[in-house]
Amino acid sequence: MSNRETAITRRGALKLGAGAAVIGGLGLTGTAQAARAAQVPNLSKLTPAQQAGQRVIFSYPGPTPPASLLDAISAGEAGGVIFFGENITSLSQIAGVVAQLKEANDASPVSSPLLLMTDQEGGIVHRLPGQPTMSERQIGESPNPGAAASAAGTGAGQNLAGVGMNTNLAPVLDVYRVPGNFDDEFGRSYSEDPNICAECGAAMLTAQQALNIAATAKHFPGLGAATVAQNTDLGPVTLDVPLADLRGIDELPFGAAIAAGVDMVMTSWATYPALDPDLPSGLSPEIVGGELRQRLKFRGVTITDALEAGAIASFGSPAQCSVLAARAGMDVLLCSARDVSEGQDSVAALAGALEGHDLDPGEFNIALRRVLALRDSLA
C-alpha cells in the first residue's frame, strides 16, 4: 500500500489517551497503527508554548508571510496557517508561499505537517481561482445534487493539493430556513431540505478526503436559522430554535458527515438556548463535549470559527477566548485577523493556562495528540 493510500484509509475515529496515543478505527493494520502512533512526538520534550502552538492556526496580511510567522513555525509554536484572498495573487505565488512555510516547518521540533487551509466552498466564497465554481445552492438545485457535490469536492481537493494546501474549511452544512437569509444570501447552503444538505455534504467531503485533503463540516450545530442580520462576525447571535428542530433539521447533515468520516467539525459562535442558554457553541462544553462528542459520537478534530468574531467579544480578547474554547473541548484555535500577533497572543495564553492548570493537562494532551494524528495523516 502506498503512503497516499495508507493516509486515505485513516478516515475514522480517533481514540486518544492522556498517557499515550491509541489510534483506532482507522482501517489500519496493527503494525500501521503502531507506526502512526510513533510519529506523534514525545510531548514531554515540548515546551508549553510549543504544545500550545501546535493547536493554533495563524494568519497574516498581504501576499508575503512575515518573518515573525516563519519564526513561530520554526520554533514549533504554530500549528498551521489560514489563507485569505489578500494572501493570494496567483496559484504559482501561493504555491511558493506554501513551500516557504513548509521549509520553516522543517526546522520545527514537531515533524507533523502544518495545517494549511483556506475557505474553498465554491460560488463566491473561494480564495483560490478555479474549482469549485458552483455555489452550494446551485449544487443543491442541480438535477443530481450528490454527483455535483462530489465533483465540487474533487475540484476543491485538486485545487488545494495543486498549491500544496491540505485542509479545506468546507463544506457548509447549515440548512437555511428562509430564502435570502444569512446562509442563502451568498448561496452558502445546499438546501432548505436537511436530507439534501446531508447527501451533498457527505459527497463533497468524501471526494475531498479521497484526495487526502482534510474537510471541515461547519458551522455546528447549524446557522441555517440565522436571519440576514444575524452575522456572528459582527456581534452576538442567539438562535432560539427548538431542540427537536435543532436535532431533526440542523444537526442531521452533521450526523451524515460524521458517518462519512469527516476529519474536522467547525462550531459556530451563535448561542442556542435549547442546548446552552449562556455560552456560544464553540465556548460551550455542553455543545462540544455533550452534543457533538457524546450524542453524535464525533471522534475527529474540532476547530473554532474566527476567534476575533464580534459574537464572542464580550467574553474577552481572542487570546482569552482561545483558552475558553480549549476548556470547552475545541482542539484547534483559529486566529484569522490577518495579524501574526493574534496567534502569538493565543499561544501565550494557552501556554500560561496549561502551566497554571487553568487547562487540564490530560485533556490538553488528548486534544494535541488528536490534532497531530490528523496532521500526520495528511503527509
Q: Could you name the key traits of this structure?
A:
about 375 residues, alpha/beta, TIM Barrel, five-stranded parallel β-sheet, three-stranded parallel β-sheet, 10 strands, about 10% strand
Give an overview of the whole structure.
This protein is an alpha/beta fold and 379 residues long. It has one domain: Alpha-Beta Barrel (TIM Barrel), CATH 3.20.20.300. It is 42% helix and 8% strand. The protein has 14 helices and ten strands. Strands 6-5-4-3-10 form a five-stranded parallel sheet. A three-stranded parallel sheet has the order 7-8-9. Strands 1-2 form a two-stranded antiparallel ribbon. α4 links the parallel β3 and β4. The longest helix is centred in the middle third of the chain and has 19 residues, at 145-163. It is globular, with a radius of gyration of 19 Å. The two termini are 15 Å apart.
